[in-house]
Design a protein that fits this description.
Length: about 250
């Protein structure tokens, strides 16, 4: 599908959403205070763009996201590669991970706020937790799927353990690790917003809470819209990065 066709389909979907939205307001006879119209949300968005409020919140949210997400990815990939080298150690660690993993990161928020205070760190820690486990599990799982031929080749070349990990195992397992990266982007971005609603005084999550408290529902919907758009752009950017890595390693593109 060409880029122009993709843009065209996206435009049609956007117009349909606006039409349904406005129709619900007309048919339900909802007042602006209960369900703002698309035009009211647009005007509110223009206001926070012009005064710099939106840019400030977006910048802070993206900073927190990238710090937490990149830290989690690096830590999870390294730990996953190391744990995958010993079946016995993994069998000990796996039950612990399976117990901790289902706990929503925001459930730890009382302790996170107590330990790290308010500001950037609580949101960054919540993002780290949200992104860490999908990447860790996908890394360990991906190593198990590596073609044994690669490992035999490395054995014949008498590679060291470090060279084996970074020159053979990691490139061979990266396509599967990428699945975990995509899952982690979604979960980390969702919990970033939740974290900013709990222990932050800035960011898109805070913008929604603050606007709700002020009964500015047009700005609430504006914040929701930009959260969705930025989440989509982050996922698409990761896809571009994945294809770029594939080309560097001669894997081609999917």
């Amino acid at each position: 599908m060409s880029f122009l066709k993709s843009i065209g389909y996206a435009a049609i979907a956007f117009v349909l959403v606006l039409a349904v939205w406005q129709s619900v307001i007309w048919l339900g006879d909802y007042p602006e205070a209960l369900l703002p119209s698309p035009m009211a949300v647009f005007l509110g968005t223009v206001t926070i763009i012009q005064d710099g409020t939106l840019a400030e919140h977006v910048q802070i949210s993206l900073f927190r996201f990238f710090v937490g997400y990149i830290s989690a990815v690096v830590a999870a990939v390294i730990l996953g590669l190391l744990l995958s080298q010993s079946k016995h150690i993994w069998r000990i660690v796996d039950p612990i991970i399976q117990v901790v993993r289902p706990v929503a990161p925001v459930a730890w928020s009382p302790f996170i706020v107590l330990w790290f205070g308010i500001g950037n760190m609580p949101a960054i820690v919540i993002i780290f937790i949200a992104a860490f486990f999908p990447v860790l599990l996908s890394t360990v799982s991906s190593v198990k799927k590596i073609d044994p031929t690669y490992l035999k080749l490395a054995e014949n070349m008498e590679l060291s353990r470090g060279s084996l990990l970074w020159k053979i195992i990691f490139p061979a397992s990266f396509p599967y690790i990428a699945n975990g990266l995509h899952i982690a982007v979604g979960t980390a971005w969702i919990f970033l917003v939740a974290g900013e609603m709990i222990g932050a005084q800035s960011g898109l999550g805070y913008l929604i809470v603050d606007s709700r408290n002020a009964l500015d529902l047009d700005l609430v919907l504006s914040g929701i819209f930009f959260i969705g758009v930025l989440g989509l752009l982050l996922d698409k950017s990761l896809g571009l990065f994945e294809r770029w890595i594939g080309r560097q390693w001669g894997a081609g593109t999917s």
